[in-house]
Amino acid sequence: MAYKRNIMITGGAGFIGSHVVRLFVKKYPQYHIINLDKLTYAGNLANLKDIEDAPNYTFVRADICDFDFVSKLIAEQNIDGIIHLAAESHVDRSIKDPFTFARTNVLGTLSLLQAARLQWEPKGYEGKLFYHISTDEVYGALELTHPEGMKPEFSAHEVYGDKFFTEDTAYNPHSPYSASKASSDHFVRAFHDTYGMPTVVTNCSNNYGPYQFPEKLIPLFINNIRHRKPLPVYGKGENVRDWLYVEDHARAIDVIFHEGRVAETYNIGGFNEWKNIDLIKVLIATVDRILGRPAGADEDLITYVTDRAGHDLRYAIDSRKLSRDLGWKPSLQFEEGIEKTVRWYLANQEWLDNVTSGDYQKYYDAMYGNR
Ligand code: NAD
Ligand code: TYD
Fold it and tell me: Is pTM beyond 0.85 here?
């Protein structure tokens, strides 16, 4: 069958990528969705079990840095859209091993851009789009001018400072992770400005929800609370993050892929700021309630540990441009999103166990080769 579009999603076996792949495969049977993923420690095909046999879905194991392979794939599959999520994504790992982050996030993105350019440019860029998924962390850190919180009229939830990241905020990354993402964002914009490639970049706040690798705060802590293991809170737990339910991010990507303006940047976030320690108490209360433990029984698991080096104090996204221009709004209130998320991890202990033991990767080399 001739598909209306052939879209390559990179990093589709990871946390956010798997939600984007699922949404596109189900919502657009007229599109061929090609998931290109290296299956690093963060890639897990179990995240896509429910759609792996869909006729409009193809999985390809490859490294985005493999320029020849990616070029051939774009040509053979007649790829006209790329939604690029593949990345090394964990700040703590970037502190220990910055080279891997530069390789994948910077050189990998450049390799993908160049491969797409050389395939697309000769026939013209009409109908093509390179959509790069980035993070709010490229903007650096905001001050906590209102540590007790305040409520501006445009936010349903408390905020902890008077400034927000807008699309015009200057880049000021602090971690090797955010520095590598910032660099990749610049390359994407440079490909538009230099070669005329149709590109779009979005910068999103912290995501949460099912299928997140349990090295990140929310899944790690839910699992630790369940098993009554210590909860390592960095510093004083006063850092603020702006949390968005992952399916709302995937919906935003869908809207922007189809209706976003070429060469634009859109910030994605839900005006949902939480101090880490407050969020952790919500997680404890939710897990304890669902498991029938006495309220707050597990608060003594909180263990303050040495702060993360260069730990950004506050992230807060102003997503009003996206709402105004394209009508996107988050669909879930945080209370609802956290309840769904905690219930999902408690119901999917086997998924967590496979991921923490490494079992999920056992058969990949035999099944897909080791590219
Ligand atoms: P993740 O770590 O869960 O998944 C990354 C995926 O990329 C994995 O499937 C991995 O196998 C794949 N990958 C890594 N290196 C690769 C390579 N060289 N070639 C091909 N595939 C490779 O990440 P995530 O949390 O889902 O984040 C996805 C994207 O969204 C990233 O670009 C990240 O910077 C961005 N982002 C994440 C968040 C968040 O809160 N998680 C927020 C904003 C933006
Ligand atoms: P994380 O989920 O790693 O996301 P990011 O660093 O990209 O924001 O961390 C979220 C916040 O939680 C961040 O301020 C660091 C903090 N944190 C802890 O206090 N303890 C932990 O064990 C982890 C993983 C994170």
Answer: yes
